[in-house]
Amino acid sequence: MTANKQSNAKRMKWAVDFTNRNRTDLPSPPGYCPSNNSVQSDVTNQTDSNLLIKKCWEVALAPIKQVPMNIVIMYMAGNSISIFPIMMVGMLIVRPFKALFTLSSSFKMIEGHNVLGQKCIYLIGNIVNIILALYKCQSMGLLPSHSSDWLSFVLPQTRIEYSAGGVLFS
Amino acid sequence: MLKYLLLAVLCIAQTHSLYEDQVGKFDWKQSYVGKLKFSHIDSRANIKRIYVASEDNAVASLSLGSGTLLWRQVLEKGPQGAIVYFHYGANSLVTVSFNGLIRVWNPNDGSLLAGWTLPLNIRHVKFMVDGGNFYAIEVSSAIKTVLVHTYKLASGSLNDVVKKIPATWLTESTYCETNQNVLACLVQGSVKILFPSSGGQTQILEQSVPSATFLTPVSSAIGLPSFKAGNVVITVNNKNIETSQIECNSVHVDKTEDTNKVLAICVRPLSKSNIEVDIFISQQKISSNNLQLKTQIAQSDINVQSCFCKGSSPSCFCILSSQDHTTLFISTQGKVVWIREEALTSIISAEFLDLPVSDVDAAIEKEFDNQECGYFEMFTRRLMSQFYQIQTLLSIESPAFKSSALVRDKFGLHKLILSVTSVGKVFAMDNLSGKILWTLYLANVTPYSVTGKQFAPVFVQRSTRYVPYPAQVSILFKQSTSKEGVLFTLDPITGQLIHGDQGQKLGYQVELSTLLPGVNKNHLRGILLLDSNNQIHLEPPSSPVPKPYFIYKVHPQFGVLTGYFVQEDLKLQKVWELNFGQPVVHVASKNPVEKVHSQGRVLYDRSVLYKYLNPNLIAVATHTPDNVFSIHLVDVVSGNLVESIIHKRTMGPFHMVHSENWLVYVYFNEKTRRNEVSTVEMFEGKTQSNSTAFSSLSKSLFKPILDKQSYILPVSQVDAIKETITEKGITSKHILIALGTGSILEMPWMFLDPRRPAQVTPDMREEGQVVLEYTPELPILSEAIINYNQTLYGIKNIHTAPSGLESTCFVFAHGLDLFYTRVAPSKTFDILKEDFDYALICLVLGALIVGTVVSKKLASRKTLKQAWK
């Protein structure tokens, strides 16, 4: 209770109420022209959509732009299997997948516009990244692409003929 | 240099020897001497001992009270080392071997005091030791003289001129024997007694024994040379002859200090585990005792080896040896002091058998055994088994828990070793302790012989897994007289014979026998027996025969292999024949219980080379008199000769192991004078011709890829080789090599691998696989010797069996010593280390739990506090 009162008191102390002031008779601030309002908004709308498309292309091209960087990272990581290269490869492979799954949300801000082209580019860029990551996995030997990786699943051959015998007893 | 260093490091990493505190933990060794040939009881010394010499060429000393081995010396193997003369006297033990070596041993510790070679042909020579002299007595019927050569025992130098005793009575059929300082000859119904060691004039005593056909020396503890001729025992007492009539076969002559009378001890077998011991003084039976034995012995012939007596109403202690190689030490007052099962030196077959489940588990299994019973019966069964469980839980002493010692453990590490010996004695031993659980003597049987080795097939028809049914094992022998087969069927847990003492007489000569793979409705695997008329007999007769079934026969003398197809009516139809024209020395087929987990081999470029796992493949080794040794790999279904490998200038003994897709064999290279190991590995190639089934008769016949390599085995002699085997075949395989030096070497397959490259390139190493560069000589590492410092004499064979754990394999080696251990070729990956710190891990876990609880409490308190701020 006391705390509530205190806070009330504090509020009272610092509260300034502008509601009971009359604003209509105040002159407009210098340089403000209410008639220009609509024209200006038209211009900003125009530039906004240009900006959006530009932004959209930026988003779409980001994965492709990453490719050279990724190649460099891959080269630097080397082919040995240890914790850091594995982490890097993991990042490389997880990021494009994540991006693919959040494809629609990345292009959400441009609602109503036709961004199919950008989406395609974005998709291709991410796929290129995935392919790169897979290539890295392959060269590191992480992909079960060899027959030896499936060897433990090979079942023993069943025998069709049965045989027995040996040296004659004497 | 670097290469060898790397190899050495790899070797050390590969082998895993025992720690000092693990000695005797998983292994045991039992030492034997073999069937007694000579013995002497030293009753006068402070520490009473028994000195023995055996048919297996061992000289040993046994403790009188317990029969344990005090020392043992093993002489040369085979007939060359056979001990022909044995003498104890004046702090030395003298043995003469058939190869003419005379050895003098220190009786206290078995050290060699002197050893020299007799410059005579030993065949017609009798021996005698008297004083410090060694007498070699040549009985020559050609020149009608007895020649006495005298040597100094300690040095072997000639001591005296050769003494000639004229003996005009000598004929071709004269048979002579020595006993102590007396030579006795049986000449046409009379025994002539000579004293070759006495100087001057040679006195000859004569005793007429009209009905005598043989002459045997009779043991005597206190220096009364005695002989048994027919039923008459002749005792030479101070150059006088005393005779006594004895009706029993086996006899010992003694004289007690008190009575000064000659007494004779007779042993008569009453049954397999019951003997009677009688003492006679001047043909009067003064005592007779019945002895109950804890083992079974042969009834035919019990030999009284030696005795010593004391007291006025004489009580004697005797060593007996029976036909089945058992050595008994008994007191004539009716007590068995100890028994030594010397038959265990002549094991010819051994099997590891599962123990039955505990009675509680058995009750549970019984509960779910019969699916077709009604609800009420099921309910009563459930009640019964639960009542049983409560009962066992409450009282350990309940009758159901009686047999708890012989139950299967969780890891399948407790098993029973069933061993069959060449004398017809069967033993069951506990694998953990080496204790003999039961013995069985099978009378009038002899083992079969296969490529020069004695052999008695053992068939495990039913294991202990099928609970209401007892386990069943059959042993095949042949009758000594008629050579017809006898099948002994028994329960391996109790040792009870099913068809009685005489076994099941088959009534035909068995040429071949095998265990069938299928089981009948009683879970019993059948035995297929092939008689000499190519007729198939099944035991039990209703056993299912798999289809299609093929049988092959190997005639070892001519080197002829014949393959037959088993028709519907169980008639044999000849399919193929191969004639090598050379005597077969060894045939190696795969172990039928073997499983192969990995179907291929991963190469360093990560491709797969598929193994050629032909279940019908055998390896036949032939050896010609001009020392050409050949190995033929034959598919026994199609008769297809897969490969022939020829080694020139080689000598035996040959040993071979055939397992998975490889073959290892050992031979002696005569050209380079050393033992060599050759390995062959077979592959189908980079693709499998048929990934689901293997047929030897498939149309797309291909030739497997063979890799061959030879290595030098830097040891003087190899006694036996065997591969390790595990339950699922996941664990890598090692080869166990019994060396002539008495150690068993565990050689990883990696070293014997025929695909060891000549040069290891860096990308071969990269894959994390261990690739060894080819080096011609195999390393003999002391860490890889599984019997560490316990020397095993005369290893005849090694048996391996899988345990319940995938990592572990049992090893049982037998010869003059028995040795059991377990090996883990890929280390014990499925078992916690013995020194695993249970306390520490419990402590850490407990601390963590406590920490979690406490910190949770603290954290909640802290958040509460923060909320109030």
Describe the structure.
The complex is a heterodimer of chains A (170) and B (869). Chain A has helices spanning 2-14, 37-77, 83-101, 103-106, 116-140, and strands at 158-159, 162-167. The relative contact order of chain A is 0.10. Chain A has a domain at 49-74 and 81-103 and 112-141. The mean pLDDT of chain A is 80. In chain A, α3 (83-101) packs antiparallel against α5. With 170 residues, chain A is mainly α. Helix content of chain A is 60%, strand content 5%. With 869 residues, chain B is mainly β. Among the domains of chain B are: 357-406; 835-861. Chain B is built from six helices and 64 strands. In chain B, strands 34, 37, 38, 39, 40 and 41 form a six-stranded antiparallel sheet that branches. In chain B, strands 49, 50, 54, 55, 56 and 58 form a six-stranded antiparallel sheet that branches. A four-stranded antiparallel sheet of chain B has the order 1-64-63-62, with no helix packed on it. In chain B, β49 and β50 form a beta hairpin. The radius of gyration of chain B is 33 Å and the shape is globular. The N and C termini of chain B lie far apart (75 Å). Residues 8-15 and 398-404 of chain B have low confidence and may be disordered. The chains are: A mainly alpha (170), B mainly beta (869). Chain A binds chain B through residues 141, 146-149, 151-152, 154-170, and chain B through 448-451, 455, 478, 510-514, 516-517, 528, 546-556, 584, 587, 589, 595-596, 598-600, 602-603, 606-608, 613, 615-616, 636-637, 686, 688, 690-697. β2 of chain A pairs parallel with β45 (549-555) of chain B, so a sheet runs across the interface.
Order of helices and strands of chain A: HHHHHEE
Structural class of chain A: mainly alpha
Largest sheet of chain B: 6 strands, antiparallel
Work out the helicity level of chain A. Answer: 55-70%
